[in-house]
Amino acid sequence: MRTQPGSPVRQSGEHVTASTTDSATVLRVALAAVRAGVPVVFRGKSGVGKTAKTTTYFKEHGYHIEVVAGGAREASDFTGLPIERDSMVEYAPLGWAVRCNRAQKALAFLDELGENEASFSGMLRVLQDRVVGDLPLGDHVALIAAMNPADISVSGLHLPGPIANRMLHLEWVFAPDEWSAGLRRGFVSTGLAAPEQFLPVQGSGTYATVAGRVLGYLRTQVGDLEPAMPVSKKEQGQAWASPRSWHNATRVLAQLPADDEAATHLVLCGTVGEAIAIKYLKWVRDNDLYDVPDVLDGTVTVDWTGRIDRLWSLADSLASYGLHDPKRWRRALDVLADGARTRPDVVYPAAHELLRSVPPGQTLSRAAQQAFASILAQIGVVSLAG
Fold first, then answer.
1. For 342-351, what is each residue's pLDDT tens digit?
2. What is Dmax (Cα atoms) for the chain?
3. Which of 141-145, 172-176, 201-205, 376-380 has the lowest mean pLDDT?
4. How far is CA 224 from CA 192, 218, 243, in A?
5. Is 384 exposed, middle or buried (0-12, 13-18, 19+ CB in 10 A)?
6. How many whole angstroms separate alpha carbon 129 and alpha carbon 172?
7. pLDDT tier at 15, thresholds 50, 70, 90
8. Strands of the 40-43 sheet, one edge to the other
């Protein structure tokens, strides 16, 4: 298992908990979520530096900062104020959103997230659609929130389920050594590495690999895609599985190295919940999944008579690779064509997806033409021979 700088060493198979997770891993996961465009909420007791450390870190690395305290806001502070313009009523964006958009890169820090019920409805569109008033927030605007646990907050409120399910939930980890160093410096900086050093950019195929694994798992654990919504308000206000939170998990995991197990565990716990996170990680470990780049470059040969769940995951990953990287579209179909003789039930859905999205100028090998002739006829393609 890969260990990041500053991460605690654990025995293989040991689960990561709040007591073993370090602040460096939490920050790494938060940065992955920012890069993926998934809103983050830090939950931790008052006075441990959630707002101060986060805003200081992003500010020292070039972000414009806007702190929006939910405890003193109304819904209109997020949905915008109605104004009449040219005989039409529009919703004017708030100053904080305009300033974020004007900056090169910005952090909108939604503080005191759970302190004011009146602001919840207004936050929904901000968190889901990234729109304030009628102003779309640019991709360069990060959304991070912070809140106290309900049992120690002023209002005692839990997050509504629709808000909670849109976010990556992270338990704040206080680092005494970082605080001590900050006190010596006067807290003018965090002294931590820049985001691009802390979290190197992953290759273009990482999303395809993650998507294939997630789809492979959900084909075997269908009930985990859309289980019953939690009943209690406390559970609704935390991480729980839905198609939306699985998509968020996939997007964030695609920003992390595949062997960063500590961060992977936190992402899954913070999106689909700890119980499913443990099941998913065990499934990945137990199934010895194919490394898709090795399959695509011919380093690894696929055994199409092998386990069905392993093959489903591979087929889904190949489809995702081909859809995201036109240069690998033809090669992905060639690999699938090889499997069509043995497992057409596995490869045909993936091939169908690829053949419905032909990159400009692409052609098919003769083997793929023959293997998928029925699909080509079904979608009305006469020939892609090349």
1. 999 999 999 9
2. 72
3. 201-205
4. 37, 7, 9
5. middle
6. 26
7. very low
8. 64-69, 106-111, 141-147, 40-43, 168-171
What does the block give as tokens for 182? 């900050």
Instruction: Tell whether the model's pLDDT for residue 229 goes beyond 80.
Output: yes
Are the beta carbons of 308 and 237 closer than 8 angstroms? no
The CATH homologous superfamily for domain 23-281 is P-loop containing nucleotide triphosphate hydrolases (3.40.50.300)
Domain positions in the chain = 23-281, 288-378
Q: Using the 8-state DSSP alphabet, how is residue 359 labeled?
A: P
CA distances to 140, 202, 220, 225 from 35, in Å: 9, 11, 30, 24
Q: Three-class SS of residue 86?
A: coil
| Rounded distance between C-alpha atoms, residue 26 and residue 42, angstroms | 9
Give tens-digit pLDDT for 20-77.
478 999 999 999 999 999 999 999 998 999 999 999 999 999 999 999 887 767 777 7
pTM: 0.86
Q: Where are the beta strands (DSSP E) in the chain?
A: 40-43, 64-69, 81-85, 88-92, 106-111, 131-132, 135-136, 141-147, 168-171
Measuring CA to CA, how many Å separate 375 from each of 117, 200, 337, 366?
A: 52, 40, 12, 14
Residue type, 67: V
Q: Are 1 and 148 in contact (CB under 8 A)?
A: no
Percentage of residues of the chain with pLDDT beyond 70: 92
- State which amino acid sits at residue 384: L
How far is CA 253 from each of CA 180, 258, 309, 356, 377, rounded to the nearest angstrom?
Answer: 32, 8, 20, 27, 37
The token pair that represents 153 in the structure block: 């907050």
Count Cβ neighbours within 10 Å for each residue of 118-151 and write b for 16 or more, e otherwise.
ebbebbbbbbeebbbbebebeeebbbbbbbbbbe
Query: 335: which 2 tokens?
Result: 């690999």
Phi-psi region of 321 (alpha: psi -120 to 50; beta: other; left: phi over 0): alpha
Over residues 361-370, mean pLDDT:
90
Q: Token pair of 114, please?
A: 């759970």
